[in-house]
Every structure is written in structure tokens, then in C-alpha cells.
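Minutes, project check-in
Item: structure for the 288-residue chain
Input as provided by the requester:
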Amino acid sequence: MRARAAFEETRRRLTAAGVEDAAFDAAALVETEAGEGWRWQDPELDAAALARLKALAARRAAREPLQYMLGRWPFLDFELRVGPGVLCPRADTELLCTEAARRLAGRTSPAVLDLCAGSGCVGLGVKRLCPDARVTCLEKSPEAFRYLEQNAVSALPGFDAARPAVTCVRGDVFDYQRRLAPESLDLIVSNPPYVTDAEMATLAPEVRREPAMALRADREGLAFYEHIAPAYRPALCPGGWLAVEIGWRQGKAVQAVFRAAGYEKVACIPDIEGRDRVVVGQKPENEP
């Protein structure tokens, strides 16, 4: 069977299984056996390749995340290693990186802390956009931390095990602030858990295969924001920024949390579809 025919067969199978973007996923699976140029080269797939493709299609039809199956996923202009136990990087999170990087403009060798780092996509994204930034990534989960360490040495060009792109730290966001020197950071970024209990019950089957500790949060999804905003504020230098990703219904609530904690210039930035996605706030330049 040729690659294009195998693609159509795979697409139909995934569509029947309810996979949302069956064509995209089918193309990605075919590429693993036929190579990047399969659409115009249309190579013949031998029996062994077809068997492997069918096995992959069966796993995807069972709603295993495509990211886990491939073991890698693009983010901005680089690629991250991913797998079971770590939150899958998403295009929505790229907005957090770009908005955070904008707020480092004009700063020399800024100090950045990425809380709830997971795969490291946010911290590495900021490092990619601001090469002279000194980035620390904090992650609690041992499973996710393994991917964070791998990505720190392999995701960005020019870095390796001898000189990781970011510093990886195992720790809990709810007490790590005690280890930080006052006014030592220019920027804190985070894509924390923010899914409510009600929303957890409605997640797609693929998302439910991702770690719940990276998704769910107490207090109607606001628990991490309610801790991070006040607890980490002393570690920000005057004029330093806090930037977080949020659920699309949380814009007003998270902005209120930021303002109550004493941040200025609080704003909510929408994603490409116009939904609330990132909240930013600045520690005042001159404290009263």
C-alpha cells in the first residue's frame, strides 16, 4: 500500500474513533513510517511498516495523546521531548512566552523564574526569545522533571549537558518562595494547574491521560494564582513582572487576585481566538 492510501485509511479509522483532528493526526502517524516527504513522493509501505502504522492508529484511536506517541512536540521554533507524566505543550502557551519576553525588553541578563515548569516549554520559550535571560525552572513531579532536564540540554540549539539552557530545580511552588532572595527576579512566569473539578469531568479522553496534578486546581481553579501572586511578590525587583496562563473564563478573577496582591498595570491578553489566556502585572517601581 502506498503512503497516501495508508493515510486515508488511518484518517477514516481515527475519525470513526472520534479523534477531533483526525487528518492532522493521521498525517503525523504516516510520517513516522513514510518520512516527511510522503505527500508528494507517495512511497510504497512494506508489510512491516503497515503493521507498525496500524498499531499506532489503534493506540491513537484508543485516545492515547499523539504527543506521547511521537515522544516530541514543536513549540515556538524548537522541539520538546514529552511523554506520560508531563503536560503536553500547547500552542496557546506560546502567547505566555511572547508576552513575558516583551516585558524583559531593555533589561540586561534578567533573572527569570518559571513555576510549575513541566516540560520546560515556558522557561525555554523565554530563554529562546531573550537569550541573555538567566532562567530557573521549578517542577515538583519527578516524572515531569525528567523531561524538563532532558529539554534543558537538548531543546535549544547551542546547549548540552555541560551547559543547560535553564537551571532545573525540584520543588513545590507552595513553599519555594522561602528560598528566594528579596528583589532578586525580573520576571516570574507560570502555566499552573487551573482546571476546575467540574471541567475535569468534561475533558477530552486524551487530556485525561495527562497528569491530573498538572491540570486540576482547588478553589475553582484559582488556588495557584492566589498563592503565587502574593507569596512571590517579595522576590520580584521593583518594576518586575508576573505573567501567568489562565483558563479562558478566569480573566476577571485572576486580575482581581493580582490587584489585591498589589500589582500595577494588570492586564489580560487574549489568544488568537479572542479568549482570555494570559494575565500580567507589574510590581510597583516605587513601593510606598
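Outcome recorded: Residues 31 and 126 are 30 Å apart (CA to CA).
No further action items on this chain.
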